[in-house]
């Protein structure tokens, strides 16, 4: 875990925010891709109606985070939303060993090759089994879709009670204002960051092009199929790992960014 990527002082720069009181809390931190591009990082904690907690894309487990978790409930699920958002699985599972660890196919092997902590995966999403059973309590509140056509093997969740889409790299919402708000550093400074921001905001069509010509280019049909399924869900908020939370009109923004893939899915029917 390079210090160029992850802040050395997460307890000082992390923003812990209740997005939905008593239900959803986000853990937002500064994060630099390749040590140069400011994209921000975010973990999400959801409190289920039975009081158990589901953690998505866990970030640094600071003392403040532990206190927040203790006040919310018992951690029952820890999910790496894709191939890239897994580096803190070890510390979280060590702290909450009874939690079920969830992730995409190939991630256990990747972690082993990188000499990461040995974490037992309870559920692995695969192309052959894209909708595995997790447990009834979890499935009562979440819809989920595996996107194997995404280059990072993305898993997307919708928390139905709060109409909140939780995802990692399916789409971005640049700039990462909240994630850099405690650093004293501008989230848009630097030429590489500005270029990246131009193609990962939700105001222009550039992110649509990035996903079409880049991220989904190896299997646009498969990607479109997954996006079409996600589009059937009723969500209003989007919590991305990179960039700010989309607090409202999330469905409309999603449809704008994924328009070409949704059109392709319609043609395939």
UniProtKB/TrEMBL annotation:
Lineage: Eukaryota, Fungi, Dikarya, Ascomycota, Pezizomycotina
The organism's place on the tree of life at top rank: Eukaryota
InterPro entries the record matches: DUF4336, RibonucZ/Hydroxyglut_hydro
Protein name per its UniProtKB record: Uncharacterized protein
Organism: Periconia macrospinosa
